Amino acid sequence: MRRGLVAVAVLVVAGAVGCGAEEDVDLVVEGTAPATPYGGPLYVPTKDLDEDSEEAALIESGAAGRALECDGEVYSGGQGETWGRSEGGSTPEEGLKLYFDIEQPEIPRSGWRLEREEDDRALFSFDVLGRTKVAVVVAKEQKDRPGWGPETNASCDPAELPARFTDTMEIEIWTDKAGKRIPTTTLSSHFGPEHCDWQSVHFLYMGRGGDSRQYVRDPDGVFESDLLTAPYDGDVRMPDDARDTGYRLDEQELWLTDDPSKAYVRTPDGVEAWPLTKRGVACA
User: Fold this and answer.
1) pLDDT at 25
2) Residue 121: which of 155, 145, 148 has the closest Cα?
3) pLDDT for 151
4) Of 149, 7, 21, nearest to 89 (Cα)?
5) What is the per-residue pLDDT across 90-131, written as a single tens digit (0 to 9) for each?
6) Which end of the chain has fewer CB atoms surrounding its CB within 10 Å, N or C?
């Protein structure tokens, strides 16, 4: 949900680090709260939905999702887990730290701001150029959640987060010809995980949810042919009807035809044909 009528102070983010860091550095920025913080309710009922869509993210994220100021779609959202009496925080800031300890989310672990606090709830925001891109609502003494801890959380697309943070993530963020970052719900890629011996594989994703497509670069033949619509080919002629999408990743260009069974990636060395998977492939 956009929050265009609300102006939020620009954050100076000091040393954002990736998920799993042993120590938080400046988790919460000290200073004056924004002059006009998010003005909606800090509690909005939630519901768990087993789907990947912006609507589901908003329903699952409650107030946190409504506090976002995304340029595109709301990327993710959810509710806090339960915890024991000894784990709950004694302050809202400790409640935010508990969120990172429990969830280990792939979001920046420093540079947060206490945007608003009232009664037994507080809203923390991570802002980019004065707009909230990640939000966490912490609450006090919830059912099966003693002390202060996370109630709801939500995030804009990773492409809207600082490059110095996303460069530490596995996901690769593409750009258009002008260098503007493309939402990962439109296009993203990443290498296969080593623990499944898929490090030679490169995955390419287009779309979101039920409309998404998954392509693979598989030079070592890791996947059986019955998983793919065609074999991977690392040296092909660009089809005459192929069109340049304008999407770029370093020196790679993505080209497509009307046939969705292959995606064509132009590199300085030539053109590769990445086949579409017949069903989603994931490492367990």
Assistant:
1) 60
2) 148
3) 97
4) 149
5) 999 999 999 999 999 999 999 999 999 999 999 999 999 889
6) C
CA–CA separation, 244 and 255 (whole Å): 5
Provide the whole-model pTM. Answer: 0.86
**So what's the pLDDT on residue 7?**
28
> What is the pLDDT at residue 10?
28
Q: Which residues of 157-181 are buried (b: 16+ CB within 10 A; e: fewer)?
A: bbbbbbeebbeebeebbbbeeeeeb
186's CB contacts (< 8 A; 6+ apart) are: 206, 207, 208
**What sign has the CA pseudo-torsion 74, 135, 44, 51?**
positive
Q: How far, in Å, CA of 247 to CA of 158, rounded?
A: 17
| Nearest Cα to Cα of residue 184 among 75, 50, 261, 108 | 75
Cα dihedral value 154, 157, 159, 165, nearest 10: 20
Within 192-253, residue ranges assigned H as helices are none
Q: If DSSP states are collapsed to H, E and C, what string results for 139-185?
A: EEEECCEEEEEEEEEEEECHHHCCHHHHCCCCCECCECCCCCECCCC
Q: Tell me which residues of the chain have a pLDDT lower than 70.
A: 1-25, 31-35
Phi–psi pair at 272, nearest 5 degrees: -115, 145
